[in-house]
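Incident review: delayed structure delivery

Summary: a single-chain prediction request sat in the queue longer than the usual turnaround. Root cause was a stuck worker, restarted by the on-call engineer. No data loss occurred. The affected request and its eventual output are reproduced below so the record is complete for anyone auditing the incident later.

Affected input:
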Amino acid sequence: MNFQIREAITSNVKGDSPEEFRETIQDAIARGDEHLLPGLGVFLEKWWQNSSTEEQSKFTETLSKVFQN
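Output delivered after worker restart:
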């Protein structure tokens, strides 16, 4: 992923409230546009880098369960 995309997305959401992040994520998912996936990827990357090993394990366990179907 191009670092300019990371920087642009980070700049666009800097200072957003938790509710604004929720709305952004829900909107991206509801639209289903593939061009919004890099933004969600940047969110995941930032979250991952700032999460504990326990949070990461819980997340990957949930993903594994979701994709077993």
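Verification: Residues 1 and 38 are 8 Å apart (CA to CA).
Action items: add queue-age alerting; document worker restart procedure.
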